[in-house]
Amino acid sequence: MALISSTSPHTTVSNNTGAFMRQVIYATLPGLAVLTWQFGWGTVINVLWAVVVALVSEALILKARGRPVAFYLKDYSAVLTAVLLALALPPTSPWWLTLIGVSFAIIVAKQLYGGLGMNPFNPAMVGYVLLLISFPVAMTQWIAPGEAPSLVQSWQLFTGQLPVDGLSGATPLDTFRTLHSSGAGNESELASHGILHGQFAGLGWEWVNLAFLLGGLYLISRKIITWHIPVGFLAGLALPALVAWLIDPVRFADPMFQILSGGAMLGAFFIATDPVSAATSRSGRLIYAALIGVLIWVIRSFGGYPDAVAFSVLLLNLCAPFIDYYTQPRTYGHDKPNRGTQS
Amino acid sequence: MIRTLFRSRSRKIYDFHGGIHPPERKDLSNGTAIAAGPLPSQLILPLNMHIGAPAKPLVEPGERVLKGQMIAEPSGAVSAAIHAPTSGTVSAIGPRAIQHPSGMDAICIVIDTDGKDEWIERAGVADYTELSPGELVDTIRHAGIAGMGGAGFPTSIKVNLGDHQRVEELVINAVECEPYITADDRLMRERAAEIIAGIHILQYLLNPRRTLIGIEDNKPDAISAIKRACKGCDIEVRVVPTKYPSGGEKQLIQLLTGKEVKSGQLPAQVGVVCQNVGTAYAIKRAVIDGEPLLSRVTTLTGEGVRQPGNFEVLLGTPIRDLLVHGGVDPDNIGRLVMGGPMMGFTLHNPAVPVVKTTNCIIAATLEELPEPPPEQPCIRCGSCADVCPANLLPQQLYWHAKNDDLEKAQHHNLMDCIECGACAYVCPSHIPLVQYYRYAKAEVRQQAADQVKADKARQRFEARQARIDAEKAEKEARRQARLEANRKKKTETASAPTVDTAALKQASLEASKAYKAAVKAAKAAEADNADNLDALKADVDRLKAIADKAKAAVRDAKEAGPAAAPAEDIVGKLKKQVGDASSAYKTAVKAAKDAEANGDDNAAELRAKADELKAAADKLKAELRDAKANAPATPATAPQVDPVADLKKQVGDVSSAYKAAVKAAKEAEENGADNAAELRSQADELKAKADQLKADLRDAKANAPATPAPAPAAAPADPLADLKKKVGEVSSAYKAAVKAAKEADENGADNAAELCAEADRLKAEADHWKAELREAKASAPAPAAPKTPPAPTDTPKAPETEAPQALTAVDPEVAAKRQKRLKALKTAYNMAHKQYKEAHAALERGERNGDIPAEELNAMQQKVDKLKGKADVARDALDALVEEAKADIRAHTGKDLKTLKLEAARAESALADKQRELEQQRDSASEDTLEALSSELQALEAEAQIARKALKQAVEEQGLQD
């Protein structure tokens, strides 16, 4: 008999990193469905295309790095990156936009740093920011809620055969920011823009965000993520928004509008929770996510961009190691936790 | 109300962080009653089934043993006895594969069983309260009981805390949280009463305020059995929720008491003692039934076992026999685990025995416990941190351990990891995290050990440096003082008492500075808990003594008037010196002869030495004559003899002795000799003496008129007798030389010609003396002026007939024998030392690599200790022999080796000092002074040679060259 010789423990849970990633992908499905309902098939097409691009990029770069291709493709991390990035892109995105963003995210933001587990920045957000800076027009052309183009139109948008202009419309966040930056931000003006007044928040987007919230709650229930990052994120966004809105409800959007607009829920449950680039201790994650939330509110309210999930996440990715050093838990048998980098 | 509140509070089950819920798999084996294990044909009993020193065998191969007979006794405080689990014959005591992850061998007692199961007489005590706690602890110790839960810590230590330690809670660990294992479960169900009886004994020993039994809620039958058994007694049964690792000692203590055991401390320090339920059972059997620990309940389980269940297995039963007994198809199992699936280790060799800590054997199929999946990258998901019972950040520890960043790993409290495996269990990337931590921990331990070593070396170096600096300062101060004194002497021709207080003050200052530095060093060392504290303290004391002496000297100098030094019996002293010198000479001659006879290379050298000694002896004799002549002229008023010269000589002697002593002490320290402190204190005494004498000398110089050389006396006391003696000596030397030359010639030695020449020279000298004797005889009635012996001239004459003779004859046979023994012992010691070194290196390697668990390291440690002991014994024997030789030297020369060494060194350095002085004064001093100095120099030269010779001879005689 050839006995196995290994160190303890001799049994482990049956799940693996690939399963973990797949769960996250499944959890995006409600959000994807609502995006499709509101904005047409563009997002679905882009998600599928992004997955293809991601797998090919990952395979090529793994091959170039001399790593086992099949083994690493099975961890689904590239697929998840592609899905998250594609979900963040406008549904009007042409194929080349997705291609550039996803391949950059996989090759540069992830693999050139050493692959899964080694990347200091969230790859999807690196890809997103690259596109936002390089192609600001293409990246801000959303479709007016409820005016979803047909599958053919979506395909034509994807292949670039159909000009975007005829279909595009502003998002609630865009509308709100434009009103204020043009100096027209008074009560009657705000009231006259229907897009700002959906059931709970911005029209259409409230459903998108609620769908991502649903997926996020599924992740928490499956213990794929803990509550710390989403709660910190949303609190960090909502609390300053609440204070500011109580002070000046015309100048500042209300907290409900904030957390149900743009990429708030996608960011809170799917982007900021990327464990590789986030802080790792429980209290560290709270702090990390809360700072992301605050930063989003600051940029949305005072910055040059209508939304700011990507920038905020990347900035806090930078701070994560530092946060980790100051948020070690108190170890059993110790009076107080260790702080900083030196004992 | 408050009371009930308090009660309900104290009954609370606390929680600990993390924990996991792996599949329990306990139903595989908990359905059937404990059955008897196999009676194998052979039992293998490792001497180290517990943590601590291995037991010491009491039996020899071939000896018949009875069941329950002690076959190995505890060999130290932390150790446990071993008993024959059944009757049979000891067939071997030697290395066998043992229960260790590495599959290594260790010394075991092997018993061929005879199947009769014959007991020795058992002496149980029905009422244990008749025994004192001390006796009970002894019973437990000699029953070989060690923690049955897994660690195997000798129980007698844990139940013997001493009166100062108040035990708040006695916690009985019946949690059995690892999957698969049901040994404690079945034990509690079937033998609850005996367990409770054992707990009562523990209560009697520890006198705890509360006794708590912690049982996981997945063992309802065991809970009810225990609850039934302890009805009406002061034992509280606490049901804890099923969660791994609730059975960890620290976790259970936290669960039941809410107390945390501080990092690096023992539970006893928070007033808790934790014992396994199986241990309590074993204590009952040992105390009340008089049965030592011979067997234990072991779970045999896994899907590869046809009839899984619990067996009462004799200690030493090979796993193979147990597997056969349980119906295991060897081809069907993929993994064999000793212990639980979370913390157990895989076995490669089913021949290893069941030991006191073997609570479970899992014979798992490949499907049940498959090969671990390949390791994927860590994505820092934090699942590990969520389950860590120590509340660590395993993902960060992993990162730092993998990068060998041990400092950061320690900052993340790596050393608090209990290696429970919860993190690795939940890791979605299947990273063998525990293995990384084991590695990093071993590295940390190794680094700490290296650090301690380096610190010690540094402290030694610093202490040495401080000492050297202090000595330098002293020397410099002395030199300054001497220069000052000389200058003063030159400028002040008057006899005013001018003690150089300035120089003394300077010396005093230096000394106290050195002392303060040493105090500081010692304090620092104390703060560091350094090992060489004693040495440093001795240093401090020494320096303090020096400083005090220096201060006293300053005081004395200030107070001292023209006080004169006490007179000395110069003649007596000289006589003694003459005696010493001539006997040294004789021994030297003999040595030279021996050397030549043996064809030694150094024969020529020895001969030259003999000559030198001769010259010295002659010189001394002349001096003696002078002194004798002077003596009657200057009876009791000794100071006028020449106190200055005398004192100078004394100072020279003492200070060179001091230097020699310092040197010896230094060497001893460097070699780590035990008598280093002693030598140092000796050196201090000498120093003090030297200082005193110097002060005296200064005083005397101030008092005495500047006439260094003693005036030649009027008449010698008895020149004839003296001359006669001289003639005898020289001629005997000559004879010896002739003989040596002859022998050398016969042996074809290279130096034969040289020896011949030497013989001729001696002959000439003898003739010269004879002539002188004749002359003296002729002028006998008239008091003749003594002549200083001239340099040997070439006046050949006949040899005399007197055999050379050493002071006391040394039996060369004895010396040779001793030399042989010395050599043999030295070889033995070297071998033992080498073995020890190798074992030590192996141990260090083991600790560094970290793949060896604590028990094994302990075993290795013990081996190292044993070898060290052996080496020490050999060294002691060697030392004893050397001492013997030294004693012989003492017997033969009237001095011990140390004295001889000191004398030699003293003479050498006095000579060097004198030479220096002469050099210094050459330009400045008057001709008289120079003359006096050169004559002194000669005398010292001779003295040094004598001493050197004597030492060499003594050493060689006793075969102590090495």
In percent terms, what proportion of residues of chain A is strand? Answer: under 5%
Approximate helicity band of chain A: 55-70%
Q: Radius of gyration of chain B from the CA trace?
A: 41 Å
| Distance from first to last alpha carbon of chain A | 49 Å
Structural class of chain A: mainly alpha
Give the strand line-up of the largest sheet of chain A: 1-2
* CATH C-level name of the domain at 9-18 and 21-362 in chain B: Alpha Beta
Overall 3D shape of chain A:
globular
- Average pLDDT confidence of chain B is 79
Kindly, what is the distance between the CA atoms of the first and last residues of chain B, rounded to a whole number of angstroms? 85 Å
Order of helices and strands of chain A: HHHHHHHHEHEHHHHHHHH
Summarize the structure in words.
The complex is a heterodimer of chains A (343) and B (962). In chain A, strands 1-2 form a two-stranded antiparallel sheet. Chain A is mainly alpha-helical and 343 residues long. Chain A has 17 helices and two strands. The model of chain A has no long low-confidence stretch (mean pLDDT 91). Chain A has helices at 17-27, 29-39, 42-65, 69-73, 77-88, 95-110, 123-134, 136-139, 151-159, 172-181, 187-192, 205-221, 228-247, 255-259, 264-271, 282-302, 309-326, and strands at 142-143, 168-169. Chain A folds into two domains: 16-169, no CATH class; 172-327, no CATH class. In chain A, helix 13 packs antiparallel against helix 15 (264-271). By secondary structure, chain B is of the alpha/beta class. Among the domains of chain B are: 9-18 and 21-362, 3-Layer(aba) Sandwich (Rossmann fold); 570-642 and 707-806; 812-890. Chain B is built from 26 helices and 17 strands. In chain B, the strands form four sheets. In chain B, strands 1-14-13-17-15-16 form a six-stranded mixed β-sheet, sandwiched between helices. The model of chain B is unreliable at 1-9, 561-568, 632-641, 705-717 and 781-808 (pLDDT under 50). The chains are: A mainly alpha (343), B alpha/beta (962). At the A-B interface, helix 1 of A face strand 15, strand 16, helix 10, helix 12 and helix 13 of B.
